[in-house]
Amino acid sequence: MGTLTFLPFAELSHALRRASTATGKKHNLNKSMSEIMSCRRIQTMRAVVAVLLLIASGAAAAPAQTPDQTAVIHSIDAAVAVRFENLLSFTDVEHYSVYRGGDETHPVAEMTVRDAYTKGVGKEYTVLSESGSGIVLRFGLKPLIENEKTINLPGNVEKSWFTSANYEMKLKPGGIEKLNGRDCYVLTIQPKAEASNLVIGTLWADATDGSLVQIQGVASKSPSAFAGATHMMRQYANIDGFAMAMHARAESSSMLFGRTVVIIDYSDYHLQLKENSR
Asked: Measuring CA to CA, which residue among 165, 187, 166, 191 is closest to residue 175?
């Protein structure tokens, strides 16, 4: 009976008169009332759907909240500072593969090392295995590792951090982007100084805590007058709450060696953290 209260009284009276004069049978009256009720239910449903569509269209039209660039950059700086403060030391295994020309299936040289980092001291590398071209090992990979040791010395390492102290950062439009299953803010980065380990390119930062997810770009300075631009990429994973490198790729061309690709895979991390840092 509740649905009848929504029917206009004149429409209901007309339906009853029409049903009673047709044949005088009860089932006709029931049929007419059923038709009226069915009609009104359809009209009610249509009205409800229209309201829902209006609400949905309003929600779709509402602009997504634009993240604050200053807040995003601050979160990146804070993540780097917290990592440096709380990561006392770590070890990992790094596998280096070097490819020449267009062949990225068969490395011309490989090296596996154990990296040991200590805060306030730097890095030490122990060669676990090496194979392939002695020239590439001697003039390619070993200088690369020595350069990593120099970069990570106290007083040097701070200059290589991906922070606003070392880079001009600008948040790209478009909001959050998914990368490797993580919600990220995407920023363009331009180093304030030129160095072979500083990158002109793009930074992906985790939207929840500002930690690094990926870096991609071109070295702001060529390591040699005989080498062309070095294209670099490094991916990070969250290990024990901190961003740690997992995979890196660098590609360059030179007059002497032509196209060279170096791929680094990182594994077997063991972190020593400051007490109560987690």
From this structure: 187
* pTM across the whole model: 0.74
Q: What residue segments make up the domains of the chain, in order of their start?
A: 7-61, 69-273
DSSP assigned state of 187: E
Spatial separation of the C-alpha atoms in residues 189 and 203, rounded to whole Å: 7
- CATH class in words for 69-273: mainly beta
Helix, strand counts (H, E) of the chain: 5, 11
pLDDT in tens, the chain (278 residues): 443 333 333 333 333 333 333 334 444 444 444 444 444 554 544 443 343 433 344 434 333 467 899 999 999 999 999 999 999 999 999 999 999 988 899 999 999 999 999 999 999 999 999 999 999 999 889 999 999 999 999 999 999 999 999 999 999 998 899 999 999 999 999 999 988 889 999 999 999 999 999 999 998 887 654 466 789 999 999 999 999 999 999 998 877 668 899 999 999 999 999 987 66
Q: CA 162 to CA 206: how far, in whole Å?
A: 14
CA–CA dist 191, 61 (Å, integer): 38
For residue 255, give the 3-state DSSP assignment.
Answer: coil
